[in-house]
Write a structure and sequence with these properties.
Blueprint: H1 25-33, E1 49-56, E2 75-79, E3 83-90, E4 95-104, E5 117-121, E6 129-139, E7 144-154, E8 177-184, E9 213-220, E10 235-242, H2 247-250, H3 262-270, E11 273-282, E12 285-288, E13 296-298, E14 303-307, E15 326-328, E16 333-338, E17 344-348, H4 361-368, H5 371-378, E18 433-436, E19 446-448, E20 456-461, E21 471-476, E22 479-481, E23 483-488, H6 502-510, E24 513-520, E25 525-530, H7 550-555, H8 557-564, E26 569-570, E27 572-577, E28 584-588, E29 594-595, E30 603-604, E31 613-614, E32 621-622, E33 627-633, E34 642-650, E35 675-680, E36 694-698, E37 710-714, E38 723-731, E39 734-742, E40 750-755, E41 761-767, E42 773-779, E43 812-818
Parallel strand pairs: 1-3, 2-7, 14-19, 29-30
Antiparallel strand pairs: 3-5, 4-6, 6-7, 8-43, 9-10, 10-11, 11-12, 11-13, 14-15, 16-17, 17-18, 18-19, 20-21, 21-23, 22-26, 23-24, 24-25, 25-34, 27-28, 28-33, 31-32, 33-34, 35-36, 36-37, 37-40, 38-39, 41-42, 42-43
């Protein structure tokens, strides 16, 4: 970085030899121009970049005269995303016009280009790039002087000091940043709904914030208050999932055992689902708009429409929808997807646990639809289950209501075998990707069945390129499950991004196409295997499961993946796509059943999942800390059916064995465990361009003796930027060595940005288009308490200082901003 003071400048030879006491012209000029900045200081890369402009000599007399020019230029460097000031000074002369213009380099927007002091934000670059600017000054008699300034822009850097480990009951962020709490469990989202008492007496969660905030997207809102504006960073809609509940805090004295009272069960049900809320920023502060007409809660009781190949399938028929076209609600919504046409995808993850299936059900199905027993077993719904929270045990005040009975999937011989008189088929109505139009509160969400049925964690689109069929990447969040992508049958048309019938656009791209499952090869290559009925043995003769048609393949996506020999992964969770390269990243959170050698239900280490070890104080063997895998599609196209892969980073404590566990060389500034949430900064701002920032969030139980869960910022490289590594796993008398492919050590390009409060999970992230406000969700603080009167966290009340020891914690959305108003993280 150049020091302006040391730059060589042009000298016009004017030497002061007048030693009289008369007032000097330079004193008059200094007095007149003292408000202007001058080229006296260097550049501070951590705060602001100030670069010199050109000097024009002339006079400020009443009578114009020809200008004599004097100039100095500078060449200095600044990281992308930082503010740059171009400053010209006038030591003498009468100026008519001033104009800064760019003459070379990536185009930037100059602010105050017609003044001596102009500014811009350094653009995103992949490598050091020179920008040139010309300052043209015209005197009143028409003389023109031009002077050139050059600025070298380097790729973005993580411009903050890493946050240390923390066990405190607050959200900690780097110096220079601020945290505000925006939207908490129970906050009212309609006029007339009372403030949340937070003592277990609150009701009507259909008009309050739900619990366990999770995946989230921000959509800019137009001035009309009803349409999208993708450039609005001060007013928008925030759409977020409510995955689950901390049931001990929802009721006055905790949960009542089964049979459950209706008053408790309805609260618990309504606390699940999705929120759509309007948010605004005024005078630097964010708030949600309680009375907005766009506010909406989508719960497990909200009507849903099925769309795609499984619509009207026999296995979707229930007493609620006898033709299999409709359903009620969505549940256990984890990660999300933000569609280019301004809709929101919410994804049904651990839905299977909510269903009751009594003993004897399997025998009934064997006599009618025996394949369903195979299917239910593969999705984890065995006989003898009571169902999460025992909602099926409620006796409703309205005898005709089925909102509790629907959670009992037990089949009986006394009722219709096709399921139209009970809810034996209700489990098949869940496990889907759901599309929501946040700008139309009257719209009915659609379950997109072409994307398959599984423990859907998230669904993120690849790069949307005109004329190319887009892909949507998904993980099935369970041990030893698979990574998928759906490739639309329809090439992308950019005009659809501004369509007014947004769900119709979803019909166009999400209802027809090909679903693939990933197979990772040891040599660093991989294939996308099509899950298409009639291909690769997916037919009625299949020995694993006799598929009847494409709807059967999609309802039983896991069984289809089994049949094709897909690679079992270590809990595939969030997916994220680098907006600059198109490479897809997927968090593999952990896997307790990954062992050195396969046995029973345990899976052996392999190239893509190479670690099985003990991480003290635990004595269990497995991939305790997780890793992040990434793929590069062949020819960098979403339409590819093959790819290359490596592991971007392995989670580990800094103190763990660097040879076989801490393979990425993590240290105290960036060690982590159990990656979960994953997201790239938006391409609408510099943090999401050229070399984008990637955000990693954790949901951990292996590292919490050292620190609470966290969020890290990264600037990842590319697939293949590292090399191969032999990894030996030894435990329980077994040992195995595999060769994996690992990216270059992240070093300073990976830093811990945030640590959350006690017993929380950090999950869900999005930002305003300009990148100056980042929204993050804090889920289930204090989840370990058994007595609501003795909470194990008091957050978010504790964020602003001391809180009463009995204050119950609440999941909440926070907003992070940079105190200087800049783009977060850089």
């Amino acid at each position: 970085m150049s020091d302006i003071n040391n730059l060589v400048a042009y000298d016009d030879g004017d030497i002061d030899t007048n030693r009289s006491a008369n007032t000097h012209m330079s004193d008059l000029i200094a007095t007149r121009l003292s408000r202007r900045q001058t080229l006296r200081h260097g550049v501070s890369a951590m705060t602001t970049a100030l670069f010199g402009g050109a000097l024009l000599a002339g006079c400020d007399d009443e009578t114009p005269e020809t200008v004599t020019a004097s100039a100095s230029g500078s060449t200095a460097s600044v990281a992308a995303g930082r503010p740059v000031t171009l400053t010209g000074t006038v030591s003498a002369g009468q100026v008519a016009n001033t104009n800064w213009s760019q003459t070379a380099g990536p185009s930037v927007t100059l602010t105050n280009a017609n003044s001596l002091v102009a500014s811009f934000r350094a653009p995103a670059v992949a490598s050091a790039t020179q920008l040139a600017f010309n300052l043209e000054i015209t005197s009143r008699d028409g003389a023109v002087t031009n002077n050139m300034v050059t600025v070298t822009v380097t790729p973005i850097a993580l411009d903050f000091t890493a946050v240390p480990h923390s066990l405190a009951d607050v959200v900690t962020v780097p110096a220079g940043y601020s945290v505000s709490v925006l939207y908490r469990l129970g906050d009212p989202i309609a006029s007339g709904v009372a403030a949340y008492a937070n003592n277990g007496t609150d009701t009507n969660f259909a008009q309050r914030a739900g619990d366990h905030h999770d995946g989230m997207s921000y959509f800019g809102l137009a001035a009309s208050g009803s349409n999208p504006d993708p450039n609005n960073s001060t007013r928008g809609l925030l759409v977020l999932n409510h995955e689950n509940i901390s049931e001990q805090y929802l009721h006055v004295n905790g949960q009542t055992p089964a049979p459950r009272p209706e008053s408790e069960a309805i609260k618990e049900i309504e606390c699940h689902g999705v929120s759509v809320i309007e948010v605004t920023r005024s005078n630097g502060a964010w708030r949600y708009v309680q009375a907005s007409a766009l506010n909406r809660r989508i719960t497990p009781n909200t009507p849903m429409a099925f769309s795609g190949p499984v619509k009207n399938a026999a296995w979707l028929k229930t007493a609620y929808s006898t033709d299999g076209s409709m359903g009620r609600g969505t549940i256990n919504n984890c990660a999300n997807g933000t569609m280019a046409w301004n809709t929101y995808l919410t994804n049904e993850e651990n839905w299977a646990g909510y269903f009751r299936r009594s003993s004897g059900d399997a025998a009934v199905r064997t006599a009618t639809t025996p394949k369903q027993n195979v299917s239910l077993a593969r999705y984890g719904i065995g006989e003898g289950r009571g169902g999460n929270y025992n909602w099926a045990t409620v006796t409703p005040s309205d005898a005709s209501s089925t909102i509790y009975r629907r959670w009992n999937a037990t089949a009986t011989t006394a009722l219709a075998a096709d399921g139209t008189a009970d809810f034996r088929n209700e489990p098949f109505q869940f496990g889907w990707v759901v599309e929501i139009d946040p700008f139309n509160p009257a719209s009915t969400p659609r379950k997109r069945t072409a994307l398959g049925r599984m423990n859907h964690e998230g669904c993120q689109s690849g790069r949307m390129i005109a004329g190319v069929r887009p892909a949507f990447y998904m993980g099935d969040d369970a041990q030893n499950e698979y990574i998928y992508k759906f490739v639309s049958a329809t090439p992308w048309n950019a005009s659809d991004a501004s369509a007014t019938d947004r769900l119709a656009v979803g019909d166009k791209y999400l209802d027809n196409g090909t679903l693939y499952v990933a197979k990772f090869n040891a040599d660093g290559t991989g294939q996308w295997l099509p899950l298409v009925f009639g291909q690769n043995g997916l037919n009625a003769s299949n020995s694993i499961y006799p598929f009847a048609d494409q709807a059967d393949v999609l309802i039983n996506t896991r069984l289809a993946g089994d049949a094709l020999g897909a690679t079992k992964m270590d809990r595939p969770e969030w997916t994220a796509v680098n907006p600059a390269t198109g490479e897809m990243y997927c968090t593999l959170t952990n896997n307790a059943s990954r062992k050195p050698v396969a046995s029973g239900s345990n899976t052996a280490v392999d190239a893509a999942n190479p670690r099985a070890y003990v991480d003290p104080p635990s004595t269990s063997v497995g991939n305790r800390n997780g890793h992040i895998v990434r793929i590069r599609e062949t020819n960098d196209t979403t339409e590819a059916t093959s790819f290359t892969w490596d592991v971007y980073v392995f989670g580990a404590g800094a103190d763990l064995d660097p040879t076989n566990i801490n393979l990425s060389g993590l240290d105290a500034t960036n060690d982590f465990s159990s990656p979960d949430g994953l997201w790239f900064s938006l391409p609408s701002n510099v943090a999401g361009q050229a070399t984008p920032v990637m955000w990693i969030q954790t949901d951990d139980g292996a590292f919490t003796d050292v620190t609470n869960c966290m969020m890290l910022a990264a600037i990842p490289g590319r697939v293949g930027d590292g090399g191969t590594r032999s990894v030996t796993s030894s435990a329980g008398g077994a040992s195995a060595t595999v060769t994996t492919r690992i990216g270059k050590a992240p070093g300073v390009t990976l830093k811990r940005f945030l640590v959350g409060p006690k017993q929380c999970e950090i999950t869900g992230i999005h930002s305003t288009p300009d990148g100056t406000s980042v929204f993050v969700n804090i889920q289930h603080p204090g989840e370990g308490a058994t007595n609501p009167s003795a909470p194990t966290s008091n957050w978010p009340d504790s964020q602003s200082g001391s809180a009463a020891a009995t204050v119950r914690p609440r999941s909440a959305t926070i907003v992070i901003t940079k105190n200087d108003g800049g783009v977060v993280a850089i």
